[in-house]
């Protein structure tokens, strides 16, 4: 695998890391505020899933950085800028009006991003993780659809 492909894969993983971090944060606050047990369990499940995804993605990022430069070399890794994830109060105020339909739309959006990124990367280990995440998101979406609680908004 060429260096340019590894750089592109690293950028895709960084985008997924940011997406999963924000989702995990939103679902954590939502499941803590939710009073209905069924929805609380669902939000907690979403939060756990996003946290697991985040850890796996961070491990792959570190692995790719070691593949690019086995010895920590700032010149070779200068292109990789890890984004600081600071969530502002305005973002929280806007996003904390979360209900199940919003969560369903957010998960559907992330499912589509996973499909898109799966077609853009060639790294075997990264493809395996993205494919696993995609299937787990799809099964959660099916669970949301089968419960029928999307029709009853909070």
Automatic annotation (TrEMBL):
Domain of life assignment: Bacteria
Species of origin: Christiangramia fulva
Name used for this protein in its record: DUF2383 domain-containing protein
